[in-house]
Input
Amino acid sequence: MTTTPRSRRRNHRIPRYQQKDKNSKSSKKGWRRKLEFLIPLLAAYMLVVYQMGGRAHGDTQRRKLPQMEDVGFWDIDWESTLPLELASQWGMTTSDTSDAQSTISGSTPGTPPEQPAALSSSFVIDILSIGSNARLDLLDAQRATFGAHPNVRHFIQATEDDDADPHCSRDLTDQQVFEISKFCGRQPNLRGDTSESTHFLRFMRNQFASIPWLQKKASPVGWLCAQRRPIHGLYKALTMYSAGQQQQQNNNNNATLPDLLAIVDDDTYLNIHKLAQVYRDDTPQDPLVRAGCLVRTPIHLFNFTFAFGGFGLILNKASLEKLQRPLGDCTHGRRHLSASYNSHDHSNQDKAVCQRLAENQIGEYKLFQEQQQPQQQPQKRPMALIDLMQAYATSKPYRDYQSWASDGSTGYCLHSDWAMGYFVNYYNLSRHTSDPYFADVAHDNLETWLNSIIYNRPKGLCRHVSARRCTSSSLVCHYMTAQDMRQQSKMGAII
Output
């Protein structure tokens, strides 16, 4: 048998570069087959992600979001911490603040500020400031600056003295506040309720103040006790308006209602002149509520909007009228009410209110039932929406937190901004938003201006969060000291 020398056998081998080409061709064929299989799957996956990520549904997904309180959402250092913390939690990105002034003032950089439009002397604005007896200097500064504007009729303050439990901050301890936080972090055990009828609570309570976040507060007790105060303050203002209407004894029920009621925090600065420029109400007969800074939760998980309280919440006269209007007869039972109403139909307001009561999103139906029993308070006027809000803010006092679990209570686990946002959106205190993307979301009613929103990043007015960023042409500024407010007045922002 003749053998081929090793050197010749080596010469008959396929050259290395030809081997590479052959492998490459077979590899390309394999990848082509894989791609033909994977592309349809990838397209289907992207479609599902698009539908889940972009749909404007209000249904609750049983998924725990990163807690807003854990990232210091309510007391955050916006200039440095926001892009780092919220970006990682909620997918937020840093915002370029170089054009902040032009966005907020409505002018282009390098041009002189626009002259403020003159307010009619008959245009009435009332201010409701949510403060504390420990920070009366802020309330005094507000009253002396924008509260002294000629168009501002009343400057109303709400402090611990106006709370249903004025001694809350004195009687609670930090440890008890932490126990309340633990309770709110658990899913509620709602007897006789379905997950559909309580999905608002089931979602939002997961975001309530966590213990690590509370420990960073100067006064965890003071912060917790203040969460009911905006509703108490609004009730105080509406009670004052009702008393004035009764004293006049005429048929004009709007005689004492202002054209606008601005609800602000005690560290908020509001430019009344700038408000005249940007506020537009083309249908004053319709209720309209605007947030100085609108916060929207991730819409693919839970579509809900609320006002960042420090930037103000402004209600027009029609919205105030709706707060005073009796709720009507909603005593037919929750099952009957749920089956007889289309939530997208805002024309029948009585049915709209009855439907929301039947849904019992935050446990308010029981409070309505108790108020409707004539043997309880036979001389009391019919219950209005503001009465329901006050009853809710008064119920379940924090000092009784130990009994919440035993009696099946949901407790009081709502941030003040969420509670206000709930009643504005779900009880149609404002007309439906004009954004066509949310046309099918019946409870998308809260509006803003100048595109001031926090979703993937803060925009518009939401970026004006310190005295350094607040100028004479700014509409609203948050986290202001008493000295900052007086400086704004000297800069010619108002008066």
